[in-house]
Amino acid sequence: MNGLSFDVAHLLAGGLVLISFMMLYQDRLYSLLNIFAMQAVVLALAVAWQAFVQDAPHLYVTALIALVLKAIIIPVALHRTIERLGIHREVETVVGIGLTMLAGIGLVALSLLLMLRVTIGVDALAREDLSFALCVVLLGLLMMVTRRNAVSQIVGFMSLENGLVLAATGAKGMPLVVEISVAFSVLVAFIVIGVFLFRIRERFDTVDVGALHRSRGDSE
Amino acid sequence: MALILDLLVQGSQMALVLALAPLLTGFVRKVKARLTRRQGASIIQPYRDLLRLLRKEVVLAQNASWLFRSAPYLIFATTWVAAALVPTFATGLYFSWTADLIALVALLGSARFYQALAGMDVGTSFGGIGSSREVMIASFAEPAMLLTVFTVALVAGSTQLSTIAEVMSSSHVGLRVSLGMALFAMIMVAIAENARIPVDNPATHLELTMVHEAMILEYSGRHLALIEFAASLKLLLYCSLIACIFMPWSLASAEAGPVAYLVGGVVYLGKLVLLGFALAVFETAIAKMRVFRVPQFLGAALMLSLLGTLLLFVSRTL
């Protein structure tokens, strides 16, 4: 039983990392959002599995929050934002997709090396969850760095938060209050960024953050 | 006596792949035709094509060298050896110690090398285009294939196919995300290597898109027959490779009697039907991609297999 529970947890957490890579690979905004929703669903499954394995019912609430908030509300809201902004549907990247993928692989290798060395002697399940969570966080950061469009940067930020939730559930014993407040702060951040997006668009007629450099006085 | 029997079983495997390869090609074509609501050619049409080509006269270009004439035989021989090494209905056959995954990759690589050389030999522009594209695709597909091999070999602790099949069919492999990634990477590589639809269309002679057909445009008669035969052997090889590694059920072991061999053979046929059907459905559902998107497609395969290898290091054992 222990072997099987580990294998399923491994499968789900590995699936999260894989979906992060799929998000890096996308070149359409809508499919990016769909994959983001898929990541949230897999995250909810992973958290629910942890709840079952650790016998911790409050994690089911976390899974439910992830499912409702990140798999339904935020993707739908982002869909409508893209429609209202009327922006180009392609993802604009700073560097090529192949190069981004290579950087992503490097980050995964880095976080695995780091986490496996730091967490020697910890329970195998927590160890594996932590290393995958760091992968997801770093890939989310990479996505924020390599995208020029503010909408895809938001998606990167949200997927970073997915990694944090994964780490928190693997670490056993994060209080539910903290979990709920994190979820709501993400929601608040989403609203603030959403308002901010429209402000940027009003001011600069684009959501390409490259345009912001000009107002800062950079010669670009 | 035992030696003769062993050789006989091994020989029957070599004959089996030879007999089944055109049938698989015919089956995939038939299913594709039925899926697009056409009647389609008979399932044994590839055999008739091969016979017809074998009877026809060979037309050679004036400046064709010995390389052009010998390449079909080399391509056919290396592909046949590679296809006959993959366990189909039984593991642990007499020559199974040579059935090493890296050796397989090398055999297929040399077949591709001869083909690319032969494509450039006559000096027509189509041959050159085909060869350069084939080598471009290969330079992405081969690392992905090798990394997949590494993933599988790390799980099984061996690169030998018989051992891998035994380890995979035992219960303590469990559910591994790495193996899933390796499977997808191998399917993508197989599609690219066999010139199937998203990468290349095996049924067309459209100049702008063809890769495999461009290289063999100058061939005729028995040379063409051998190359076509080698192509269908290669398809069979990849199907049996995927079947052997990722669904190694009911493979007969070395000392099992003829009944077990028979069961293994029937199950193997079932697996081929399954894979061929899946291939046909996939090919019907998807459109061919531009040649310059192929590196991205294979890059994804490379990434999947690399990720699979990396994720292996956080799994339970190892």
From TrEMBL, chain A:
Name of the protein described by the UniProt record: Hydrogenase-4 component E
Cellular component, GO annotation: plasma membrane
Lineage, highest ranks first: Bacteria, Pseudomonadati, Pseudomonadota, Alphaproteobacteria, Hyphomicrobiales
UniProt key word Transmembrane helix: yes
Segments passing through the bilayer: 6-25, 32-52, 58-82, 94-118, 130-147, 154-171, 177-198
Bilayer topology term: Multi-pass membrane protein
Keywords: Cell membrane, Membrane, Transmembrane, Transmembrane helix
Subcellular locations according to the entry: Cell membrane
TrEMBL record, chain B:
Residue intervals passing through the bilayer: 12-28, 73-95, 135-161, 173-192, 225-249, 261-282, 294-314
InterPro entries, sorted: ComplexI_Subunit1, NADH_UbQ_OxRdtase_su1/FPO
Cellular localization per UniProt: Membrane
Domain of life, source organism: Bacteria
Alphabetized Pfam families for the sequence: NADHdh (PF00146)
Membrane topology: Multi-pass membrane protein
A cellular-component GO term for this protein: plasma membrane
Record's keyword terms, sorted: Membrane, Transmembrane, Transmembrane helix
Name assigned to this protein: NADH-quinone oxidoreductase subunit H
